[in-house]
From TrEMBL:
UniProt cross-references to HAMAP family, sorted A to Z: GTPase_Obg
Residues annotated to bind GTP: 169-176, 194-198, 216-219, 283-286, 313-315
Residues the entry annotates as binding Mg(2+): 176, 196
Cofactor(s) the protein requires to work: Mg(2+)
Protein's organism: Capnocytophaga gingivalis
Keywords tagged on the record: Cytoplasm, GTP-binding, Hydrolase, Magnesium, Metal-binding, Nucleotide-binding
Family: Belongs to the TRAFAC class OBG-HflX-like GTPase superfamily. OBG GTPase family.
UniProt key word Nucleotide-binding: yes
Protein name: GTPase Obg
Subunit architecture: Monomer.
Function field: An essential GTPase which binds GTP, GDP and possibly (p)ppGpp with moderate affinity, with high nucleotide exchange rates and a fairly low GTP hydrolysis rate. Plays a role in control of the cell cycle, stress response, ribosome biogenesis and in those bacteria that undergo differentiation, in morphogenesis control.
Amino acid sequence: MTEGNFTDYVKVYVRSGNGGKGSTHLHREKFVEKGGPDGGDGGRGGDIIIRGNKNLWTLINFKFQQHFRAEHGGDGGANRSTGADGNSVYLEVPLGTIVKDALTDEVLFEITEDKEEKIALKGGKGGLGNWHFRTSTNQTPRYAQPGIPGEERELLLELKVLADVGLVGFPNAGKSTLLSVLTSAKPKIADYPFTTLKPNLGIVRYRDFQSFVIADIPGIIEGASQGKGLGHYFLRHIERNSVLLFLVPADSPNIVEEYHILLKELEKYNPELLDKQRLLAISKTDLLDQELQGLIEKELQAASLDLPYLLISSVAQQGITILKDRLWQLLQ
């Protein structure tokens, strides 16, 4: 998926349908001088329904249409005929979409399963016809209920990427390059920070026709948990990943310190992120000779890190197969 097509945050205006009016019709028939009330009920207004679709990966469709209105219910008719119910409107969203009230920021619900449906707004109930109001003392009521109006509100649709593995690292750590090597994705790659501004997804083909999804998430900077840089814009995507792959370049001044900074930002944002499986990959090792690679390994061993690590090079295709094996083991 190209970065320009990835949309993960949209605001939409939705309105459910009004209920139809009840009928005040009085029965008319030849040779029947005074027919009684036979007004039917109004139909129910259409709902606004959010439905999960496993084939969608982005909210881009809502960039081009932000207003959705369900159909109104039909009015009641003669002979106690009920008005037609209004058609509901279905908004198809990717799995992992959170629906919020735009005014209060309250989380209404979350869509996590394919074909899962949640009613965002209920349609108005149809009014009762005059047939319901007949009594022994009022045998020809000339009134009926109006339909109940539908609801309207603005909704925020927020997508948290559902990927098995999330790439975590500082800007320009080589995440996009690694994604392009592991998968058939074609993210934007350049030698300057913040090349990636939106998450990129790719499918890693593994042995025996198995696969898993990996997400290249925009780079973290110190203070991201407080909203600096891209801040919360990308941190929410990490919450969905089963495994976090930390990527630190081999030319970093202090590999261990850089890893701890990344870990601290995740902990500040959401301490539960530290419960996820983690793996540390030292990238760009093609820049180093064997002696320098040995020094890095000694530095990592001395730091007694609480996670496995390995040295890789996306450009030279070094350690890529081992990386896939490690990730697959963690996912299982």
